[in-house]
């Protein structure tokens, strides 16, 4: 059994995607800051017969994040799929004219250094397997910067550039890096952006391995 590792586990999209990959036969490693939060999510998945475990780590802490991914691989099996989709903090979204250099430190650590840390942790195991998928989930500001959300816009652009370089650099090793852009809100009643629909889309990105950037729905005008 190989493992689906989700960095930024939550009760909406995260839980739906974990259930989709778990139902397909992967072990599920959920990574988030709160151990209590993780316990609720893993209990939910286990009721469906999915092998799931939680690992506490803050994406701003490279040592803890690396340790969580290494522990997940040791306990559940090698990580074949990594999904990086933590929700940015509200204070990352200052207007651009109110944003200082210091204001960009945490957004860049969150959306760039966090992904780099995760990839460096899982890449040796994927190479040993001879396959792997790296999935990056971002909002619309990753491709259309928003002047009222400067920190996230800058950080998502950096994450996108890094992910695109991974896509090109790792293709020959059968390791597929891909990005899903979700332009609007994730809502249970959304035709294209409900948690269940997005979970199916993310699973298809792993199995179909077609191209780098994909959109959950068209960008608004």
Automatic annotation (TrEMBL):
Pfam families linked: adh_short (PF00106)
Domain of life: Bacteria
UniProt-listed SUPFAM superfamilies: NAD(P)-binding Rossmann-fold domains
Classification via InterPro entries: NAD(P)-bd_dom_sf, SDR_fam
PANTHER family in UniProt: OXIDOREDUCTASE, SHORT CHAIN DEHYDROGENASE/REDUCTASE FAMILY (AFU_ORTHOLOGUE AFUA_5G14000), OXIDOREDUCTASE, SHORT CHAIN DEHYDROGENASE_REDUCTASE FAMILY (AFU_ORTHOLOGUE AFUA_5G14000)
Protein name: Oxidoreductase
């Amino acid at each position: 059994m190989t493992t689906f590792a989700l960095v930024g586990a939550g009760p909406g999209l995260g839980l739906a995607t974990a259930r989709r990959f778990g139902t397909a036969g992967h072990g599920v490693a959920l990574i988030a800051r709160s151990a209590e939060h993780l316990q609720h999510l893993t209990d939910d998945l286990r009721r469906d017969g999915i092998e799931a475990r939680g690992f506490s780590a803050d994406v701003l802490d490279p040592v803890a994040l690396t340790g969580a991914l290494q522990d997940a691989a040791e306990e559940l099996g090698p990580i074949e799929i990594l999904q990086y989709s933590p929700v940015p903090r509200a204070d990352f979204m200052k207007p651009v004219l109110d944003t200082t250099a210091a204001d960009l430190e945490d957004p860049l650590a969150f959306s760039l250094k966090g992904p780099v840390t995760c990839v460096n942790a899982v890449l040796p195991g994927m190479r040993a397997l001879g396959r792997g998928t790296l999935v990056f989930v971002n909002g619309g500001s990753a491709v259309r910067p928003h002047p009222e959300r400067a920190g996230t816009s800058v950080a998502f652009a950096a994450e996108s550039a890094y992910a695109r370089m991974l896509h090109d650099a790792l293709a020959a090793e059968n390791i597929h890096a891909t990005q899903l852009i979700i332009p609007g809100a994730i809502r249970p009643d959304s035709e294209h952006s409900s948690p269940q629909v997005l979970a199916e889309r993310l699973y298809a990105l792993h199995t179909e391995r077609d191209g780098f950037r994909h959109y959950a729905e068209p960008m608004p005008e």
